[in-house]
Amino acid sequence: MVIYIEIIAIMLLAIFLDEEKFKKYGIPIIFISLILIVGSRNYLGLDDVNYIEVYNNVSMGNLSETRNMEQTYIWISKILSMMGLNYKALFLLYSALTFFFIASALKKLELKKYKYVLFLLSYLAFNFFPFLTTMRQALAMSMVFLAAVLCYKNKIVKSMILVVVAGFFHNSAWLTLPFILLFVKNVKINKTIKIFIPIICLIISKTNMIYFIVEKLNDILKLGYDSYILSIKETGFITKGIVTTIMFLLYASQCFINNITQLKTDIITQDNNNKEIADVNKMAFLQRQKDIIYNKLIKHIKKWFICNDKETENEKDEFFEKGELLFFSIFILTYRLGFIARFAYYFIIYENFILLNIIEKLKEEKIKKVAIAIALIMLVLLDIYTINTTTLAGNLSFDNFSFNIIF
User: Could you state, in order of their start, the residue ranges of all structural domains in the chain?
Assistant: First the structure.
């Protein structure tokens, strides 16, 4: 199984290469191997069959049978077919562009080695299979991801241009334009809101309001997507119930970690102060300490629910949490609404940063190292579980890959 080899390669490169060499040599090796795995597939599902059919029609000059594909797909297909290349060249090109944009975004985020490893293992668990055959949206997603990073770096104009370009590869990417502006550094979202918005989305989703709106828009605009979007109940690879629920709970827990850490620091500080006070009446002193500890507990409990962001908010954590918020909110709103649920794919990549965020908030180095080890083990086990429970994974054998890109 090629994915097992990829997991082993990631772990070995991380073990034997230091920080600098891992980023210089390890990351390119890993991403090139991912490009080859995705780009050299023969076909794995319905989307691939459609891609191949349209490519062959374009190569034969039959432009009337292009299944409403974007013009960029048709133009690229025409250019590659004129060069004497078959659909495999198209798969390889889309795969290369997708991972190029993802790698470029990660480089701008300046991740440490352990964060790269956690991200890559998370990508294999949460993103690899959803994007394995949806290559047009995968490419658009990677460009939207880079656009969000550029927006975070205050390069807003470049960010907007990149999203517009992404829309030419998959039209739905244009719908992400207003969301990308949330990634501007000056836009701060209270942590309480980050938790309650997905809960509100869950309540809305139970009313079937989104279904009703999409159905009405489809009728008014005569899009003809009723069977494609609303009737096909695609649950997708992102809806593995318990796993998604656990990741959401981990996402929500980020709100409390800083406050718990601060409470521990306050208690230790108070304890040290207690030792310095020797000439105070013991009973009065104990009563006073009870009052102090009680007040501090009340203060921190309020913080846990109000989640004040002013104290220890890291800008990069804020960036990741915004993406996680968008993913879970859209995922919940569009759950079981057919292929429209794929809109959440544009932000699914942020699910890979949840464990990174939690570990980064841990202050003690020993606890952080233990947490990294636990996260690595958990992600490897999750990768193995995903491989053994996903239908597409069964087709990822060596005999389903080839580099024959010539007609």
Answer: 1-187+391-407, 188-363
Q: What local confidence, expressed as pLDDT, does residue 355 receive?
A: 93
Q: What is the 3-state secondary structure (H, E, C) of the chain?
A: CHHHHHHHHHHHHHHHCCHHHHHHHHHHHHHHHHHHHHHCECCCCHHHHHHHHHHHHHHCCCCCCCCCCCHHHHHHHHHHHHCCECHHHHHHHHHHHHHHHHHHHHHHHCCCHHHHHHHHHHHHHHCCCCCCCCHHHHHHHHHHHHHHHHHHCCCHHHHHHHHHHHHCCCHHHHHHHHHHHHHCCCCCCCHHHHHHHHHHHHHHHHCCHHHHHHHHHHHHHCCCCHHHHHHCCCCCCCCCHHHHHHHHHHHHHHHHHHHHHHHHHHHHHHHHHHHHCCCCCHHHHHHHHHHHHHHHHHHHHHHHHHCCCCCCCCHHHHHHHHHHHHHHHHHHHCCCCHHHHHHHHHHHHHHHHHHHHHHHHCCCHHHHHHHHHHHHHHHHHHHHHHHHHCHHHHHCCHHHECCCCEC
- Cβ neighbours of 79 (radius 10 Å): 14
Which residue, 36, 128, 129, 53, is CA-closest to 391?
129
Q: Which pTM value belongs to this model?
A: 0.84
Give tens-digit pLDDT for 212-270. Answer: 787 777 777 665 555 556 655 554 444 456 788 888 888 888 767 655 555 555 555 55
Show the tokens assigned to 165. Answer: 């370009």
Most confident of 247-251, 331-335, 345-349: 345-349
Task: Give the number of C-alpha atoms closer than 13 A to the C-alpha of residue 84, restricted to the C-beta side.
Answer: 1
**pLDDT tens, residue by residue, 3-22:** 899 999 999 999 999 999 99
